[in-house]
Please model this.
Amino acid sequence: MNIPTDSAGSVLVVEDEPRLAAVLRDYLHAAGYHSEWVADGARVMEAFHARRPDLVLLDIMLPGRDGVDLCRAIRAISDVPVIMVTARVEEIDRLLGLEVGADDYICKPFSPKEVIARVGAVLRRYRHGQSNPPVAGLAIDEAATRALLHGQALDLTAVEFRLLRTLLGSPGRVWSREQLLDHLYADHRVVTDRTVDSHVRNLRRKLLEAGLEEDPIRSIYGMGYRLEA
Model:
């Protein structure tokens, strides 16, 4: 793809509503991004291979091929960031359960400025790469089953350690409470999903008390939690 030298990156906009797609492209252009638009789900993979975008903004309800199937297809061949767009907030719970591999989710109606902010945040995380720790100074010592902040071991319970390890392992990913529970208890005991909230509160407190300047765990309303990188 021929991208202007001043472009912040290229975005493939997959949206079957022409007016909405036009608005998104205008805002992306104003923010310095190059964009291409595809309205038909059946043409997305062809466009993806031809354009090689830095990020895909992918609507779920599409003619020809739905966004869930397309996200899986993209993820099978590439780790390019995907932000999925849905018209129903409850749909996000289903997507989280399916674990389709999206990096973020946005619910309509949305502010175009919010979309640009999300695009920028996801691209920064992606470009940051796994060579650097998601949170400066915070590390997991798998062999010793402990977490360290600036080299000092944190006083975490086994469940808090597994919670932090899970979040650190996929920075930027939104985890539902049910998904986190699957990673927290090896014996798969029956507990309520709100138990996760209690563990998150305790983990946040211990991280801040240990000297972390900002809370890296973000609560996503109606969805769950994610670690900000």
